[in-house]
Amino acid sequence: MLLTSGQISMAISSSVVFMFTFLLFLSGYVLQQQTVRSLQAIIKPQPIVVPPPSPVLAKHFGTPPGHSFYDKYLASNRPKGGWAKVAYVQLVKEHLHVCNALMLFAVLDDQESMAQRVIMYPKEWDASTTGALDPQIETSRRLLRNAGKRYKVMLQPVEPILKGGEQSTFPTFPLAGLLSLTAYNRVVHLVPSGLVLDTSGLDHLFTLPMDSDMLGISAGTVDGAASPSVVLLKPSKDAFHSTMESLSAAKYDEGDFLSRMPLLPDLPEDQIHIVAKSSGLRLEDDSFNATAFLDSTSYVHVSDPETLGPEFDAPRESLASAIPKRPEPKRAWQEVYERYREMRMDVCGLDLEPVPKPSKENLAQSQQIP
Questions:
Q1: In whole angstroms, what is the distance from residue 218 CA to residue 18 CA?
Q2: Is the pTM of this model over 0.85?
Q3: What distance in Å separates the CA atoms of residue 249 and residue 166, rounded to the nearest whole number?
Q4: Where are the alpha helices (DSSP H) in the chain?
Q5: What is the pLDDT of residues 200-247, one digit of tens each?
Q6: Which of 3, 14, 96, 222 has its CA 20 to 30 A from that of 275?
Q7: How many CB atoms neighbour CB 200 within 10 A?
Q8: Do the Cβ atoms of 101 and 193 come closer than 8 Å?
C-alpha cells in the first residue's frame, strides 16, 4: 500500500513533535530530581562533626586562677596538698563586714582563684525567732545565702570561743580561732574592710614558706602602725590550744593580737604590691603612679583614721582630711573608695551607711575632756 505525500508529511511531523515532547519531559524530570535532592539536603539535618577532645588534665578544685592553666595549675609552686587544702577564710563578727566578705569572694570567683572559700559567722544569726526579724540579721542572712550560691563559699556558723568575763559584755570570736581549721594546710584572712584587685599575688601566699603558725603582711600607714592587713595561718590542734590558753576574754583585744603577730620580711621586688593601705597613700611622693598602683596591687586595705570605714557616707570634712594632697596618690585614693562604693551596690545591693550619731554617753565623756 502506497502512502500519499500528505500521510508521509503527517508522519514526519508527528515524529518530530513526539521527539521534542520526550526531550522536554526528560529535561523536566532531570530538573525536578535535582530540585528534590537540593530540598532534601536542606531539610535533612547535617551530621555534627565532633572534633577529637584535646588532652586536658582533671582539675583538683574549681577552675585555675589567673589566665594560664599551665602557669597556675601545673606550676612548681603548687600549694602543699593541692588547692583543696588551702582556703581564704573571712571571720565576720559584725553585720557591717558581711558585705565586704561577699565582695572579696566575688572577685576571687571572677578571677578564678582555685583556693577554697569559707565564711565563719556567729551561730546566733541562724537562730529562729517568732517575732519580727531584725533588719541587720535579715540582710546578713540574705548576703550569706548569696555567697554560698553565687561564689561557692562554705558557710560555717561558730559558737563564741571566748565567752567574755566580767569586763566583757559581748561574746568574742578571736581571729586565732582560725587555727582550729585543721582541714586546711594554709589559711589566708584579709583584714576588713578592703578591695581585692588581683588574686594572683594573694594565691602565691599559699606557697610561701612559714616558720611560725601565724604570719602577717603589713603596709605603710600614715601613723606608722605595723598591724597586718593580710594574715597567714597554719592551722593545727597544738597551735590552736597553745594560742587559746594565752588569751583571756576579759583582756583580749584583736588589735593588740594583730600588732604582736610576726610580720613577713620584705617581699621580692616583683611582689611588693601584694598589700597596700589607703592611709599609706599620703606617704607617697611625686613619682607615684596611680594606674600602676591599681594594676599591680593585690589587696587594698581601705582604712583611714579620719573615717569610720568605706561602708559609711563620711562627711566632707572627714574625707578632706583623709585624702592625699599629691595628684596621683589622690587619684588612686579616690578610685579605691569609688570602686568600693560601686561594688558594694553591685554585689550586695547596699548603699553607703549613714554615719551613726554619737551616743549621749560619748557626748558626755567628750565634754568632760579638758
A1: 103
A2: no
A3: 9
A4: 5-43, 69-72, 98-110, 135-151, 199-204, 237-245, 254-259, 290-296, 316-322, 327-348, 360-368
A5: 889 989 988 888 899 999 886 666 567 889 999 999 999 888 887 777
A6: 96
A7: 15
A8: no
